[in-house]
Amino acid sequence: MRNRISTSYNSLAQYARSLVDAMTQPYPPYERIGVKVDGEYRQLSTTLLQIENEFYGTIRPKRSVTKNERPVAALTERGVEYVEVRCIDLNPFLPVGIDAEEIRFIDTFLLHCLLSESPPDSSDEALEMSGNQRRIVEVGRQPDVTLSRGGNEVLMSDWATTLMNEMRPVADLLDRSGGTDLHIASWKEQIQRLEDSDRTPSARILASMRKARVPFFRFAMNQSILHKGYFVANPLSAEKLRHFEALAERSISDQRAIEAADSESLDDYLARYMAAPSIGGA
Fold first, then answer.
1. Interatomic CA distance for residues 281 and 76, integer angstroms
2. What is the pTM of this model?
3. Which residues pair with 85 in a beta bridge?
4. N or C: which terminus of the chain has fewer CB atoms within 10 Å of its end residue's CB?
5. What is the pLDDT of residues 111-138, one digit of tens each?
6. Which residues of 132-150 are buried (b: 16+ CB within 10 A; e: fewer)?
7. What residue ranges do the domains of the chain occupy?
8. CA distance readout (Å), 13 to 2, 183, 270
């Protein structure tokens, strides 16, 4: 029984095909639930993936869509417009969860990924990476934790050191292009965290919980209250506030206009929209 989405990133065509397969092949557990029962929709379809945006991968190629256009069709017809990077943890010690230093490190990492040789992926590699991610989440703070790399167990710290060394030239390149040393600074901060795990956000969270003698929920609430105080003390300017209020009003007005002009029933709309998406040459 199929119970997971095997998504290929070898090419845009393969990525699109894997999504279409997941959106068109019935999934028995969902078939047992049904779609419309006693006049009420329980789900959109009986496939494993009901719409493209339901695919919560760690990274997704994206494209702006036109009215009634399927995202996968937009991708294959007009190409990738931007890449959405997901599964990046928020830093609870920062008011907005991330800062410029962390963004620079992510930029360095992503450019390293782009410039590095990448052999074709496979479903076996996807399972291996998923297992590694789960292992890091569950026991990643253990100093001797290992990860699977090409079927072999390697120390996480050794693999991380290798990766960081490969990223150093990329950080240099970004700084030379911008006339700064900020990417190297962000890279050095991560090196220090790799060498001293007490500098990591996870260690700081645990230390704060121990010091305050509170569970994680209370720690998170305390940080939320602290950050609320930051934004109360640093409000938006009157000009920016008016700008966002105008955008909100325009959005509500546009929504009302669309709904007033709509004469299609939900059943007809879903039948048309949920038809197997065209993916062009993919």
1. 7
2. 0.85
3. 59
4. N
5. 999 999 989 998 899 899 989 999 999 9
6. beebeeeebeeeeebbeee
7. 12-83, 99-213, 216-251
8. 22, 34, 25
